[in-house]
From TrEMBL, chain A:
MF terms (GO), sorted A to Z: ATP binding; ATP hydrolysis activity
Location (main, coarse): membrane
Pfam families attached to this UniProt entry: ABC_tran, oligo_HPY
Its membrane topology: Peripheral membrane protein
GO CC aspect terms: plasma membrane
InterPro entries, alphabetized: AAA+_ATPase, ABC_Ni/Peptide_Import, ABC_transporter-like_ATP-bd, ABC_transporter-like_CS, Oligopep_ABC_C, P-loop_NTPase
UniProt-annotated location(s): Cell inner membrane
PROSITE patterns: ABC_TRANSPORTER_1, ABC_TRANSPORTER_2
Cross-referenced SUPFAM superfamilies: P-loop containing nucleoside triphosphate hydrolases
Protein name, UniProt field: Peptide/nickel transport system ATP-binding protein
Domain ABC transporter residues, every copy: 4-256
Source species: Puniceibacterium sediminis
Family that this chain belongs to: Belongs to the ABC transporter superfamily.
Automatic annotation (TrEMBL), chain B:
Subcellular location: Cell membrane
Protein name as catalogued: Peptide/nickel transport system permease protein
Taxonomic source organism: Puniceibacterium sediminis
Lineage: Bacteria, Pseudomonadati, Pseudomonadota, Alphaproteobacteria, Rhodobacterales
Occurrences of domain ABC transmembrane type-1 (ranges): 94-307
Pfam families found in the cross-reference section: BPD_transp_1 (PF00528), BPD_transp_1_N (PF19300)
């Protein structure tokens, strides 16, 4: 049984009054095993972060989860009370956010923000929670952690703050960590350190990780599985090695094609034409068809159903390697 | 920290000095106190004597120099009207005004903060809309009119509360206070409410705006993602960020509560400084006016100083390290 099993998840934000809601997350299904890393990939506004917040039960009002099931360790999260959900958050499911500059409260010390995360779930003494916070800081490579406990967030660099956020996420050895583009706001050397640290810490604790990003290079390095999201739907899923070397969905192929290292030096960088459509004005049928050079009239009728191919799945009626299908 | 404190004090000294000049010249330009002070029937010799007695025959710069010299000894000169030291007159009335202003401030905070917090946390509820509409009333109704309505309703029609004076007082630290006796409390209630109305609306709207600014921040979401109880998220993470703008405004508004309690004091015949200054302006009692204005300058300088200190306590990003 996978640790996290998301089945046909739908998260809606109200649209025009009286009209249907806008589905930021539309019939999304995926599963994550313990100790595995899932890379959730997509452009801005594709619904990756909302998927993460839906699992945490922290979707911003007025948005809400309106369909599907989220099974965590066999338990339907929708059946939990607010208090039970709170006890799960931070203790068994932790989250790291994109912008380390905004994640920590500017007017509270690092020590306060760490110890409160401990005492929210366990009855421990002040001294003990401080000691644990100090150890957690040391674990993510923050020098002289004892003194840094009384420092405020503005006294840390962006990379250090992200380490603090990661240390907070790891305080209770959670079963699942949702990392929402945790390295996007950091420079490349720090990025690399954080990824390695994450990998090491996740491996030692057998933690499942959902790594939300738009950076395919990170996914290829870190993730076991990949799920590509476009306009609220998963358009392609499967093992990273298969999907990145041999994509089925034209969108995935376009994403891989626009990685700079794939382009010949001196030529214009390749890109996917057009822009992500806004949720309120999605094209009929396949949401990607207006930007897709393989699209035909058939694409406009219904959203393509999911085609399964071993451990992989994709939603396209004109996949990139159709000859494999006919075999 | 110490050096910046010293530098701040020197800066404050210059502000006060500049204000003495402005106040002194300003007061000297308006009207001639001699016309009011001296009996119109007095003869020329007596006129000259009185003018010389108050030093009004000296050139303005010398009058200013004499005034500054007196100031160094805490002497603002004697009131033309009462013939007693102006400072003493003001200090005598000060507790009444302080008591009124402080009560109003407490009411504004006790009522404004929770209501603002509620309206900010649940903006869609009907009760929140009622609160916000009410605050517009508190903002826009003129103080004097509300004061008169209070008297009309609670003192005249219902007869529940007295409408003027301080009532019984009790002594504490050598000063007489109304809030220590039941009767004094009853006298204090209406004027304090009247003075608090505007500030309550201000605190309420400020708090609500602050909540709505802080709530969507990532650090609030992260606090929830840590699994903190909602009560802690609100009372620590939201409130502490919220207090920064509120403390600033409250500090400055406390000064204005004292300085501008004139209207309320006049309506409720509250024997404070506000009433004294109005009478003094009518009679062109220069020393009292000057002394009052200087007290207000001192008050605002001191309040600003306190606000800065509160700031460094609340917001770790602000430090009095001299660079700011």
């Amino acid at each position: 049984m996978p640790l996290l099993d998301v089945q046909s998840l739908v998260t809606e934000f109200p649209g025009a009054p009286g009209g249907p809601g806008n589905r930021a997350v539309n019939e999304v299904s995926f599963a994550v095993e313990r100790g595995k890393v899932l890379g959730l990939v997509g452009e801005s506004g594709s619904g990756k972060s909302v998927t993460g917040f839906s699992i945490m039960g922290l979707v911003d009002r007025p948005g809400r989860v309106t369909g599907g099931r989220i099974l965590f360790d066999g338990q339907d999260l929708a059946s939990l009370s607010g208090e039970e959900m709170r006890q799960l958050r931070g203790r068994r499911i932790a989250m790291v956010f994109q912008d380390p500059m905004m994640t920590l409260n500017p007017v509270l010390t690092i020590g306060t923000q760490m110890t409160e995360a401990i005492t929210a779930h366990e009855k421990v003494s002040r001294a003990e929670s401080r000691a644990r916070a100090r150890d957690a800081l040391g674990q993510v490579g923050i020098p002289s952690p004892e003194e840094r406990l009384s420092a405020y967030p503005h006294e840390f660099s962006g990379g250090m703050r992200q380490r603090v956020a990661i240390a907070i996420a790891l305080l209770h050895n959670p079963d699942l960590i949702i990392a929402d583009e945790p390295t996007t706001a950091l420079d490349v050397t720090i990025q690399s350190q954080i990824i390695s640290e994450f990998q090491r810490l996740a491996e030692t604790h057998n933690t499942a990780v959902i790594w939300i990003t738009h950076d395919l290079a990170i996914v290829s390095r870190l993730a076991d599985d990949i799920a590509v999201m476009y306009s609220g739907r998963l358009v392609e899923t499967g093992p990273v090695s298969d999907v990145l070397t041999d994509p089925r969905h034209p969108y995935t192929a376009g994403l891989i094609g626009s990685v700079p290292s794939q382009n010949t030096r001196g030529t214009r960088l390749r890109q996917i034409p057009g822009m992500t459509p806004s949720l309120g004005r999605l094209p009929s049928g396949c949401a990607f068809r207006t930007r897709c050079d393989r699209a035909t009239e058939a694409c406009a009728t219904v959203p393509p159903p999911e085609t399964h191919e071993g451990a992989r799945g994709f939603r396209c009626i004109h996949p990139v390697h159709p000859e494999l299908l006919t075999q | 920290m110490i050096t910046s404190l010293i530098r701040r004090s020197i800066q404050a000294l210059f502000v006060i000095l500049a204000m003495t000049l402005i106040v002194f010249i300003g007061v000297s330009v308006i009207g001639n106190p001699v016309d009011i002070l001296i009996n119109p029937d007095a003869n020329a010799a007596e006129r000259t004597r009185v003018i010389a007695h108050y030093g009004l025959d000296q050139p303005l710069w010398r009058q200013y120099a004499i005034f500054l010299q007196g100031l160094l000894h805490g002497d603002f000169g004697d009131s033309f009207v009462y013939g007693r030291p102006a400072l003493g007159l003001i200090l005598e009335r000060m507790p009444a005004t302080l008591e009124l202003a402080f009560s109003a401030l407490v009411i504004a905070l006790v009522v404004g903060l929770p209501l603002g917090l509620y309206a900010g946390l649940y903006p869609d509820r009907l009760s929140s809309r009622v609160i916000m509409s009410g605050s517009i009333l508190g903002f826009s109704l003129p103080t004097f009119w509300v004061g008169l309505m209070f008297i009309l309703v609670f003192a005249v029609e219902l007869g529940w509360l007295p409408s003027n004076g301080r009532g019984d007082t009790a002594e504490l630290f050598g000063v007489r206070w109304s809030f220590l006796t039941g009767d004094g409390m009853r006298h204090l209630l209406l004027p304090a409410l009247n003075l608090a109305l505007f500030k309550t609306s201000l605190v309420l709207r400020l708090t609500r705006a602050g909540v709505q600014e802080v709530l969507p921040q990532d650090y609030i979401k992260f606090a929830r993602a840590k699994g903190l109880r909602e009560s802690r998220v609100i009372s620590v993470h939201v409130l502490k960020n919220l207090m920064i703008p509120v403390v600033t405004i409250i500090g400055l508004e406390f000064g204005s509560l004292i300085a501008f309690s004139v209207v309320t004091e006049s309506i409720f015949a509250w024997p404070g400084m506000g009433k004294l200054i109005i009478d003094s302006i009518n009679l062109l009692d220069r020393p009292v006016i000057v002394a009052y204005l200087m007290m207000m300058v001192l008050l605002f300088v001191a309040l600003n100083f306190l606000i800065d200190i509160c700031y460094t306590l609340l917001d770790p990003r602000v430090r009095m390290d001299g660079r700011a």
